[in-house]
Amino acid sequence: MKTFDILSFGEPLYEFSELPQGEIPTRYLSGFGGDTSNFAVSAARQGAKVAMLTQLGNDVFGDKFIALWQQEAVNTDFVLRHPDAPTGIYFITHDDAGHHFTFYRKGSAASLIRPNDLPQAAIQQARLLHTSAITLAISESASDSVFAAIDTARQHDTLVSFDTNLRLKLWPLARARAVIHEVARLVDICLPSLDEARLLTGLEDADNIADFYLALGVKHLVLKMGSDGAMYASSDQRLRVAGHRVETVDATGAGDCFSGAFLTQFLAGSTPADALNYANAAAALTTTGYGAVAPIPGRNRVETFIASLS
After folding, report:
1. pTM metric for this prediction
2. pLDDT by residue (tens digit) across 127-156?
3. Closest C-alpha to 131, from 32, 264, 8
4. Nearest 5 degrees, angle CA 169-CA 135-CA 276?
5. Could you give the angle at which helices 35-45 and 254-267 cross, rounded to 10 degrees?
6. Separation of alpha carbons 180 and 174, rounded Å
């Protein structure tokens, strides 16, 4: 029996973002990051029943994530705590060249997760398992755990969605391409961004990229194209929807917000066109505020925004 909609599997990262220069010592604003955590919050704010699968350190940052997810009604029953390894963190700093990310995630609790650690009941009870290429990239054991989780999902009629979030600081392109595309062969729904899909496939045209992923075995391809909107492709349908124009101040986590919103609508039975339009609206709204989590809109705000466009 499926008791919740989505199980999100990946690494959360606690964020420290540098405030405007000019003060010594520099001050940082703390917050939450990590693609699968951002995704989980987005889906929960749209009304999906969501659970998180990860491993946190037995530390203050792990405690903060537990508090966040419980506040957002994200189930934490399947969150593991490692007695020695830390929760990963990262810093955002700024200079004349832009903003820079410095990660402290090597040996993090999430990176040490192993296939035998996976709570099988969590995957069995979910309608959909969601994970990302970042989860694959943080360690060999985490990568093995992704494949093991997908195998369990396939045995228990749990759909699998996969975001190809490409982080070349974590692994070289050739290895990323090989592993990501091996996972893509196994999933039901794949959600790459256009920029990363071009790097992964060597193709430029969106339709050719869609053909590539459908040929791998992906059943539903959702290509995220930022302000240009999004594309959906399956074996019998292909469509594009335009993006929404808003006053963007920070696009951090917009893709994660989009994925959470799209999959919530998809599981609820929306048509691909309606799900794309809804996810585009949610992602656009999240870019009007700062940070990955705080500006993610809830359902009422998204629906009000969509209604204002008609």
Report:
1. 0.94
2. 999 999 999 999 999 999 999 999 999 999
3. 8
4. 100
5. 50
6. 10
DSSP element (H, E) containing 273: helix 272-286
What helix, strand, coil percent values describe the chain, rounded to 5? 40, 25, 35
The model's pLDDT over 103-133, given as tens digits with 9 standing for 90+, comes to 999 999 999 999 999 999 999 999 999 999 9
Residues with Cβ within 8 Å of 254's Cβ and at least 6 positions away in sequence, in order, are 226, 283, 284, 286, 287
Q: Which residues contact 241 (CB under 8 A, 6 or more apart)?
A: 229, 230, 273, 276, 277, 280
ω into 25 cis (within 30 of 0): yes
Residue 8 near residue 38 (C-beta atoms within 8 A) = no
> What SS3 state is found at 272?
helix
